[in-house]
Amino acid sequence: MNRRLIQLYSALLYNAHLRGFAEGKIYTGSLKTVCAPGLNCYSCPGASFACPLGSLQNAVAASADRPAFYVVGLLLLFGLLLGRVICGFLCPFGLIQELIHKIPSKKLKKSPLTRKLSYAKYGILVLFALAIPAYYALQKLPLPGFCKYICPAGTLEGAVMLLLHPGNDALRELTGHLFRWKLTVLVMVLTACVFVYRAFCRFICPLGALYSLLAKLALLGIKVDKTLCTDCGACVRVCKMDIHAVGDRECIHCGTCIHVCPTKAISFRAGKIVLHGPSLPERGTKS
Q1: Model-level pTM?
Q2: What tens digit of pLDDT does each residue of 244-253 get?
Q3: d(CA 19, CA 42)
Q4: What are phi and psi of 36, to 5 degrees?
């Protein structure tokens, strides 16, 4: 299973509106009413779909006038079917982080500190993606807090891509303190990713936090056969994420652990169907 290839295909599919890059304009057609599962800025010139996190904030911001059933239902569907497989396979900004991490440097390994920092994204989810939009919704002033004040994916894929187009002089004249702040956040996040594996994903991303709440219920993902597992810990040690166990809230189901398991207890499954594992024919009928 070539995860990198799937990541690349996913990024290309999300940003298939190549005409937008050529024209320096945002696509606003009918596909933008549909959310992609992974983090990909609505304002990216090539974006063919809406960003699920941005859509959630906009839905909360408009909740004083209409319920957010569609967006919440779609996110629940993504979470229950795919969970954090989305983070590991279908998120363009996750791919960007992994590629940046390949820059030669001394790497910071996971530790009890990074595991504690992984809880920060839940606070960011509550405050910036839910509370701030809800507060301003009561005042009839839609404000997507995370997108406006933090999102480095939006800054890179949306603002930077649009500002680089030679025909967008008017946009460049509108940049001010807020853009400079977000550019600073972007530089800080990308720099952190050189030294820390998926720093944004682990410590900041509200979308990953949201999907992690459904991790145990997701249909697709890495599963452990408890009858074969000896609790040797090889899977946890090889993982670069802040997991306590395979398949927990921090697991992005990348599959790195599958081939280090000495008892072949780990496989990638959809329910009880084994999709990928160390000895697929023998394990295909196991529960």
Answers
A1: 0.92
A2: 999 999 999 9
A3: 15
A4: -75, 155
